[in-house]
Amino acid sequence: MAGKNWQASDRNAFRARVVAAPMAAMATLTAALPGRAWAASSDFSPSSYLGTVEPDVLWKVLIGGIVVCAFLASVLIWIHSALRRTKRAQLRRNVFISSALNNLSQGLMLTDAANRVVFYNQRFLEIYGMSRADIPPGCTGRDLVELRRQRGLLHLTVEDYARQAREPDGCLTELPGGRVVRAQIFRLPTGGSIGIHEDCTVQHRLERELASTKQFLESVVDQVPVCVAAKNIDDGRYIFANRAFEQFSQVPRDQIIGRRPSDLFGDATAADIAAADREAMLAPGTTYCSELVVQRGDDKRILEAHRVVARNEKNEPQFLIALFDDATERRSLSRELENSKKFLELVVDNIPVSLIVESVDDGRYLLANRSAEIILNRKREDATGLTAADIFNPREARLIIARDEAAIKKRSLLTEEHPISTKDGLRLFLTRRVTVLGDAGEPQYLIKTYEDVTDRRQTESRMAHMAYHDGLTDLPNRAAFLQALSQMIEACADTDEEFAVLNVDLKGLKDVNDVFGHAIGDKLLIEVARRVHHVARGGVVARLSGDEFGLIIDGKQPEAGRALADQLAEAIAVEFQIDGKSIRTALTTGISVFPHNGSDPASLLANAGAALFRAKAKARGSITFYEPEMDQQIRDRRVLHQELSVAIKHGELSLYFQPQASSGRTVDSSEIIGFEALARWHHPVRGFVPPSDFIPLAEESGLIVEMGEWILRQACREAASWPKPLQIAVNLSPAQFVHGDLVALVHSILLETGLSPGRLELEITEGVLIEDFDRGVALLRRLKALGVRVSMDDFGSGYSSLSYLQAFPFDKIKIDRAFVMNLGRNPQSAAIIRAVIGLGHGMNMSIVAEGVETQEQLGFLAEQGCDSVQGYLLGKPLPIAKYDGVVGRAHDDVVATVRKTG
């Protein structure tokens, strides 16, 4: 149609040119002739009237006209020919253009200035499923749009379509079947328009897929907990940031895009980021890993960053993509985990037992502590990955593997003992195995601990033996003896059989220890035990205490018991030769008989002890059978012990004070210089209990320690209240040196009572030094360092007094009363007293004699130079109120009265 339109317009133009050519020729001719020749005049007439015109001229005019006409005709023919050639060329060009436009991939539609459709190509019809017959001649562009709307090819109004089509992106229309067409209208300079219609179904699908993929990727990247950001290489500005980066930087994403790190972080952090970016650009690989500290406000965060450089087709850096994770908490947890790991390794390595962990699947060792190296016989690092078969000898390996499999099968704790070869030889180990289950309940690991119990089992064996045997003589002890008694009673019950229980005491063991030392005493006990066991002919023999033995003898009683006691006495009477020293001793025996003297082990042994107590009281070396009245004595002694304990707690004890005076030839010339504090007990029922009864009982039971502390405190408190600064002497028991810190006790009492240390004199016996000489001397020196005075009581009654005097410088020596009482009757007593006085003065020690009861004794002591005296002649032990005048609280007449009564 467009070709026909173009042909019609060419034909009109040709016709116009043909008409114009003759007209132009006539105009030329007219101009060539004189004006009057053509003018309307009366002279004009046909040829008959040419009389006035020259014939030559007329012919010339005619010939010229013919020539002009011929020329014009030739011109017209040339023009016609040229127009036909032009028309054919134009037709060819139109056909070419029309063919080219019809073969475009886009549809075209042209309108003129009047909006009439002047052209549309074949692609236009194909896109909308139309034919040329569907478009009437003279159709306008609006009509064509309306036609499309009627056919359901457009859902917009004509105005909306025209407006959107003229926008840069054009108008997208979705056709039936899912095809999408993009229409764009452009205004032409002639006033018309051209519409371009393109089927962009594939492109639109790809765009949607691309948009969906982009949205998906952005959503995925946004959901990634790792910070992701991209920036331009040229200006370092961010072009992308995910939500994690937005949350980390605490800056909205729209404010991140287009900004540099320096706009988001501090200078130091921005400098670190820039340095890391440069390192990533220079790194040889595609990925660069780094770590940096980012200052975010007041908070410092540790980031682990991975940078990837994106390059273009010329391998030039174009974008920098950074992925980084906030590792602050992870590093903190990692440090805590590492510390926990080190702590656990330290704990595991210091567990006092061997620890091994092995895999259940293949039995390979996964973990072992340092203690396990003893069992593994190699370093634990070398044992990792090995199995029991690789480490132990075949026999032990089979045993270990079998027990491992049993523990895995049992799935609970399995404990047993078995020997394992080590570099120290075969050792006994207590092995504990426990199976660790996985999440599915299947065995995963086997934990084993090995504890070397070789020494423990040996110790337990020795302790079990010691529990029923004496450590020195290896004889059964009291517990074993009582057990044997129970067995004998059970065997003899409901029968007529009898047996005797012998309680045997070794005479003079204390003396042997004092004279020769405890080592000799121990050897003596061993020899005595050997002889006793030999005499008993394999019967039951036990060591009940330090110097007591117990025996059981069956047979007719009391004959069998006495016969054995006599045999023991004869065997022990034979002199012992120990380390070149000859020692004689004897046995004292108490005997009880079953069933007459008891039906249980405790009663039989207690009654034998009661008989022994009576035998000792009778004579050393005697043999005594139990008698019923002995029970009363034992019970009385036990009751007295209980009452003494109550008396100490309830304050039934009191202190009496006996004067100590300087030695004068008469009582009047002997000035009182101090007192000795002595304990007295007034029982609410028994009345006055003699010290000779309760003091030994207190010594035996250990109550002397508590009693001694009370005496010391009360004596110091009393002396501190005296107006006159007299001396106060207090006896100390050896038991007080053994139990507790005596020096600290004395010091605290002095501070508590306010007594000057120089006024306190502590009297000790040789027993303090006999038990533990070095310790006793050390304690005495510490006491002297407090400023108190120390004197030796009952000097001359022991065995090693001279060695004690040499080891420790006593302040005073107290001569035993036995020597003073024999003055005038025994010449040796006077000689001993002279020697002691001379010895003490030679060692710068003062001498005090106790037991002075006569004027003759006082005179002798004064004559020999004895420093001070004590006894009934000078004053009896009395309450301190009787000596108020002496201590400065009453008139001296009181003192005279006391001395007269004394």
UniProtKB/TrEMBL annotation:
InterPro entries: Biofilm_reg_signaling (IPR052155), EAL_dom (IPR001633), EAL_sf (IPR035919), GGDEF_dom (IPR000160), Nucleotide_cyclase (IPR029787), PAS (IPR000014), PAS-assoc_C (IPR000700), PAS-like_dom_sf (IPR035965)
SUPFAM superfamilies reported in the protein's UniProt record: EAL domain-like, Nucleotide cyclase, PYP-like sensor domain (PAS domain)
Residue stretches making up the EAL domain: 637-891
Residue ranges annotated for the GGDEF domain, each copy included: 497-628
Domain of life according to the entry: Bacteria
TM stretches of this protein: 63-83
Signal peptide residue numbers: 1-39
UniProt keyword list: Membrane, Signal, Transmembrane, Transmembrane helix
Domain called PAS: residue spans: 93-135
Keyword Transmembrane: yes
Pfam families associated with the record: EAL, GGDEF, PAS_4, PAS_7
This protein's record includes keyword Transmembrane: yes
Domain PAC, residue spans: 414-465
Cross-referenced NCBIfam families: GGDEF (TIGR00254), sensory_box (TIGR00229)
Name under which the protein is recorded: EAL domain-containing protein
Species of origin: Bradyrhizobium aeschynomenes
Lineage: Bacteria, Pseudomonadati, Pseudomonadota, Alphaproteobacteria, Hyphomicrobiales
